[in-house]
Amino acid sequence: MIPFLTDLAPDEIAQTLELKPFQGKQIFRWLHQKRVFDFDAMTDLSKDLRKRLETIYGSEKETCGAAAQLRLVRLASSPKSGTRKALFRLRDGESIESVFLVDRDRLTLCLSSQVGCALKCPFCATGQSGFRRNLRAGEVVEQALHLLSDQPLGDRTPNIVFMGMGEPFRNYDAVMKSIRLLMHPDGLHIGARKITVSTVGDVPGIRRFAQEAWQVRLAVSLQAANDKLRSKLVPLNRTYPVAMLMEAVREYAGITGRQLSLEWTLFDGVNDSAEHAAELADLIGGLDAVVNLIPYNPVQGLPYEPSPKWQCQAFRDALAQRGVKATLRHERGQDIDAACGQLRLRHTDGIQDR
Known about the structure:
12 strands, 31% helix, TIM Barrel, DNA polymerase, domain 1, 354 residues, 10-stranded mixed β-sheet, disordered C terminus
């Protein structure tokens, strides 16, 4: 099977299609810089080449567009925050969701790396529907390209966070390839420091990620500082318990010299007490990390509630008193189920394309 174009860098496009290098670069720029997926609109390509591309890739045109692997099915917008949540259909009929966030001039795209998730964290909507498959690199990148299709970026580039559906390190190679495509100078050319990969604690992935020669950021969803509670909230902890996880995190910090983020979702009466804050401070003592506190975003049918605002602030203050750098996130998109932990595996049968 011939690779999809959005899976490929310019030189790979040229090699795969037996084109000259400049032609591979032309096609790549149309897809990534101009976000154009219609071969007929790629006007600086010869008519013969456009016809050839249509012949190779056009059989699924009605499903996703000739050059695309995704089709935007539905776009929900929050009137409160401007957050947008996109539902995409894939060529095989599966579906994923991703999110576009706006904070003044700051744009952030929250991308999915898998269809569903196998890790089954009991507070997260994604894992409740199970795991279907990994995404291809181009399927990851196209989320960004489609979300930015009507955005005049100018000199700006968006921030990218791999915090959507799935565990990125369980789809390691495709995620790393997607990052390189997003960073490519002939594409969106996003700086490494504007990209963050979030893991719930996949230790082999963290160790492998530490060897990457770039400045892409790492975030680790911790949620609890002891094995009993963390195993309840993050089942992967039974495989990679807290001590093993923190050993890998400290190795990562030592190898890369980079600051990392530790994500802590605050659940009412579960992990939000002063004692939990003290336990967390003891666990990460001496580590160059910022704790990102996230008020839980409720999911219908799941037995967790968000901590009250005052409790979230008290937790942050307790960490600060122990010298721990912590921020309290202001969540956006709750009204359209687009906040952290609210993305679901949906079916698109019967939904009219946008």
